[in-house]
Amino acid sequence: MNKFFRKTLFFAVLTVTFMQSSWSLSNAEYQALLERAEDNTAFFETDFRGNYTVVQNKPGEGQNVTEAVMYRRDRTASWTILVTGPAKEKGKGYLQFDNNIWFYDPADRRFTFTSAKDKFQNTNANNSDFAPQHYARDYAIEKAEEVKLGKMNCVLFTLKAKVEKVDYPMLKLWVTIDDGLVRKKEDYSLSGQKLRTTGIPSYQLIRAIEKNYSIPVSMVIQDNLKGKKIGGKVQYEQTQITIRNVVFEKVADTVYTKPYLEMMSAK
């Protein structure tokens, strides 16, 4: 496991210590903070474009790197991902519109239906990890605690799904109080088994349309079910997603269509 993964995994699984202080939020404030955390994942006023580097690390097997460009139009729940590397994967793409997600493979020039729960390029990331998150819309607060995550003052939310169409029926979410940003997330099965751990060490602030948007610099997703014992210790599969060259500006409507993926895959 390389140095970056060790460092970011350490961040993702930091021990939480409870605050021994006088500040305390009301139930209404907890709900407002969860809604802010959800709002921080969406960009309804403008289109989004960014370059993604997705590094899949399988213990004992090395790494696989995928480069991609993502376009998002959150106000219409549309997004497009075009894979640009490596060469053998170039031209593949993903497209969401009308609440459907399609995968395009230029090898056979076919679109196949996929879902938000499916894995992106066989990594530990779900397709839904690249889209806005619906913490307040789709989940109810079972418990809220004011805690420390490292040096950050957070609220630790325990959430339970109130709708059926979610990736995971239970979540634990660490949200910093001052800015409403998610710093850590744990995904659980209905029985309470921990499935994934996601750490977001830092955010980049991008100014657009007289508004600041907070975009993760990188995130690390650990699959808590897929591991291998190496040197006497279990090491889990991880996926690191790095986001750069973020631009908020109008994107042509054609980008969010099947013909666009077909055209770009031919280049």
Description:
This protein has helices at residues 3-12, 27-39, 135-138, 258-265; strands at 16-18, 48-58, 62-73, 78-85, 93-97, 100-105, 110-114, 139-149, 152-161, 170-176, 182-188, 194-208, 211-230, 233-247. It is mainly beta and 267 residues long.
Which range does the strand content fall in? over 45%
Beginning-to-end CA distance, first to last residue: 35 Å
Radius of gyration: 19 Å
Mean pLDDT: 90
| E-strand count | 14
Task: Return residue spans where pLDDT drops below 50 for at least 5 consecutive residues.
Answer: 1-22
What is the 3D form? globular
**How many strands, which pairing sense, and closed or not: the largest β-sheet?**
14 strands, antiparallel
Structural class: mainly beta
Q: How many helical stretches?
A: 4
- Strand-and-helix sequence, N→C? HEHEEEEEEHEEEEEEEH
Q: What percentage of residues falls in helices of 4 or more residues?
A: 10-25%
Major sheet: order of its strands? Answer: 1-8-9-10-11-12-13-14-2-3-4-5-6-7
List key phrases describing it.
single chain, 267 residues, 14-stranded antiparallel β-sheet, globular
